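User: Structure please.
Assistant: Input sequence and predicted structure:
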Amino acid sequence: MDEDTEADRFFEELRHAVDQQLEAPRTAYVRATLDRLLAAGLTDEEAREAIARCLAVESDRMFRTRRPFDEDAYRTSLEMISPEG
């Protein structure tokens, strides 16, 4: 399997995780982020991809530093997503 295929698979797994977070009461802040981005004019796909990118950054940090997932850092990165790009 080449790097592009692995990257695509990883991103799809992140998208699935975002879908789960959107439904979970514990991660209501993810739904609030999606709603904010949709209200600002992003498409559903664009908004979900932006959220998945934040999750990717935090997941990468977790694996590289061998520390637990930092939910506060993830939440902060979601708050910083700008619909303008």
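Residues 44-65 form the longest helix (22 residues).
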